[in-house]
Design a protein that fits this description.
The chain is α/β, with parallel strands linked by helices and 192 residues long. It is 48% helix and 20% strand. The strands form two sheets. The chain has a six-stranded parallel sheet with strand order 4-3-8-7-5-6, with helices on both faces. The chain has a two-stranded antiparallel ribbon with strand order 1-2. The protein binds uridine-5'-diphosphate. Belongs to the glycosyltransferase 26 family. TagA/TarA subfamily.
């Protein structure tokens, strides 16, 4: 269920459908990668083939921009609902807390992910947070070991775009995680 805008695939699933697919992916032990697509990323990718390939490599490209809704109407597509990165993060946390799945927060300045964790647990009291790690740790082996030892079902990566998306595709094979989402500055927002 994808539509294509200037070479970039965008998923036309609603939140509800996306959540159903994500839960299935976890239960079937599949790996999937969620990326938020906005008009800015679509434009940047026009001059950057690697970025275009990377965005199209994701399992679910969520429509994070009103421009995409407008384009979909014009092309008589089915994308009617904006799905922002931070809303998707919260929807995944809610799904995780209902289904007993766990999350890991990786990225942002030291202390920020801890505060985001605190605020997420306030909102979803039964949410299992397997771990947090700031985005300025440089030791890649330590990062991967920390995540693998925590065994989360869902990993949110907040390193800024497209660094976080490149990091996800470069490392997902080594990580024992099912769902990956690049979330940009979301931890900063959630920690406030
Ligand atoms: N960041 C990080 N490590 C780095 C560089 C950036 O963890 O080496 C974090 C930064 O602290 C911020 C996020 O990445 O929390 C980037 O946020 P921004 O709003 O710039 O990203 P965008 O949403 O524009 O992709």
């Amino acid at each position: 269920m994808k539509e294509n805008y200037l070479g970039i695939d965008v998923s036309s699933y609603s939140y509800k459908n996306l959540m159903t697919h994500v839960v299935e992916d976890i239960n079937e032990d599949k790996q999937s990668f969620i990326v938020a697509i906005n008009p800015e990323k679509i434009l940047t990718a026009q001059q950057d083939n690697n970025l275009m390939r990377l965005l199209n490599q994701a399992t679910y490209q969520i429509p994070d921009g009103v421009g995409i809704l407008i384009a979909s109407r014009i092309k008589k597509g089915n994308i009617r609902e904006r799905v922002t990165g931070i809303d998707m993060l919260e929807a995944l946390c809610e799904m995780a807390s209902v289904n007993g799945k766990s999350i890991f927060l990786y990225g942002a300045k030291p202390g920020v992910a801890d505060q985001a964790k605190f605020n997420l647990i306030k909102k979803f009291p039964s949410l299992k947070v397997a771990g947090v790690l700031d985005g300025y740790e440089k030791d890649q082996e330590l990062i991967k070991n920390t995540i693998n030892m925590a065994q989360p079902d869902i990993l949110f990566v907040a390193l800024g775009s497209p660094t976080q998306e490149y990091w996800i595709v470069d490392n997902m094979e080594d990580l024992n995680v099912n769902i990956f989402q690049g979330v940009g500055g979301s931890f900063d927002v959630l920690s406030g």
